[in-house]
Amino acid sequence: MRSITLAAAAVAMLGLAACGNTPGDRALSGGALGAAGGAAIGGLTGGSMLGGAVIGGAAGAAAGALTSPRDVNLGRPAWR
Questions:
Q1: Of the N and C termini of the chain, which has fewer Cβ atoms inside 10 Å?
Q2: What pLDDT sits at residue 35?
Q3: Is 45 inside any structural domain?
């Protein structure tokens, strides 16, 4: 059951991969979203929040950098 929950959360985080048009913006925003989601999942499942944040941040940054703005675009980043 726990692995199903984690898999569903990972798929949901990919849907929130990144915002911005440049790969750097997308990696930064994807990493932040992934870290927040990973920490939340780690805390909710009884795992390590820090470990979840590290794994989620890495996955989010990779997803943000590797997807194009045509595929996933949440708009303009807050820092621009």
A1: N
A2: 92
A3: yes
Nearest to 23 by CA among 77, 44, 78, 46: 77
Domain tally, the chain: 1
Give 3-15 pLDDT, tens digit per residue. Answer: 555 666 665 555 5
Instruction: Report if residue 80 sits inside a domain.
Output: no
Q: Residue 57: which of 30, 37, 35 has the closest Cα?
A: 35
Give the number of residues written for the chain: 80
Q: What distances in angstroms separate CA 43 from CA 4, 19, 47, 72, one per listed residue?
A: 16, 25, 6, 27
Residue 77 within a domain: no
Identify the residue whose tokens are 């940054």: 61
Within a domain: 71: no
| pLDDT, tens only, 16-68 | 556 777 888 888 888 998 999 899 888 888 888 999 999 999 999 998 888 87
